[in-house]
Design a protein that fits this description.
single chain; alpha+beta; Endonuclease, Chain A; 45% helix; globular
């Protein structure tokens, strides 16, 4: 199946996809802030440039997009119709990199929580409890 966009249009569309300050990330940051906790964003000196870092508590939160990080939900299982092999390799590479980063962070003594984009669609139901448990235990 051919793409409905020209190569230039597709390239432009893909270049507009943000890697940080996404809507799910902003929602999670707001929830953490409402809990009265202060944090740092996207620390470049840590593996994976975590989305939210609470250095005082040695905790890290990643907010992953379901499609890009192949979450086992309906959004993560979507398979692109064009250039499928390229996108499969790209997404599998993201998952492998995530595993390496999590392993390195945990080896350095960080506690890590991954919040998925699909969970943020119903934050009161799926995110708030996880954040409270992760952030407020052992403080």
């Amino acid at each position: 199946m051919t793409d409905v966009h020209t190569r230039e249009q597709r390239s432009y569309n893909m270049s507009r996809i943000k890697g940080k300050d996404t809507k799910p990330e902003l929602i999670v940051r707001s929830l953490v802030h409402q809990m009265g906790l202060r944090f740092r964003l996207h620390r470049k000196d840590l593996p994976g440039k975590p989305d939210i870092v609470l250095p005082r508590h040695n905790k890290i939160i990643f907010v992953h997009g379901c499609f890009w990080h192949m979450h086992r939900c309906r959004y993560g299982r979507v398979k692109p119709k064009t250039n499928a092999e390229f996108w499969q390799e790209k997404r599998e590479g993201n998952v492998a990199r995530d595993r390496r980063n999590l392993k390195a962070l945990r080896a350095d003594g960080w506690q890590v929580l991954v919040i998925w984009e699909c969970w943020v669609r119903e934050p009161e139901k799926k995110v708030v409890g996880r954040l409270e448990k992760f952030l407020l235990e052992n403080l």
